[in-house]
Amino acid sequence: MKKIVLIVGLVSMVAFTSCKENASSKIKSDNVAEAAERDEAAKAVPVMSFEKAEHDFGTIEQGTPQETVFKFTNTGNAPLIITDAKSSCGCTVPNPPKDPIAPGESGELKINFNGSGQNQVTKTITVTANTEKGSELLRIKAFVNPKGAAPLGPVK
């Protein structure tokens, strides 16, 4: 029994001590530089800063097409790429720029609203981009009078 314990002890001592190499010698300096470069690039993100986040068309007649432009600037330190712009309704069509917006540059997001609905109407536009938040939310609103309706207000 003592011989078995002695043999197992010797075998384990040889096995555990032979694998001890200096771990830092296995690190390749090229990989470290590449990882540092990648980490630095990941810190560079675009920031989408809008002049306004909401537009009010006021009072309009039903079916009257409306158009507005949301102006924005890339205040970040990487090119801004808008991947998608969706509306909460088919009556509102966003038209985002297709090309990347460089840091410090400005762009425009054109919105077309067909004037459908009645009374107070609010629509949202979700802009998906490569920003840190990933998306921005814009709103348009209008008070839509039915076609041919008399104007609201006191009658003389």
From TrEMBL:
It comes from the Bacteria. Transmembrane segments: none annotated. Pfam families: DUF1573. Coiled coil: none annotated. PROSITE patterns: PROKAR_LIPOPROTEIN (PS51257). This is DUF1573 domain-containing protein. It comes from Maribacter confluentis. The lineage of its organism: Bacteria, Pseudomonadati, Bacteroidota, Flavobacteriia, Flavobacteriales.
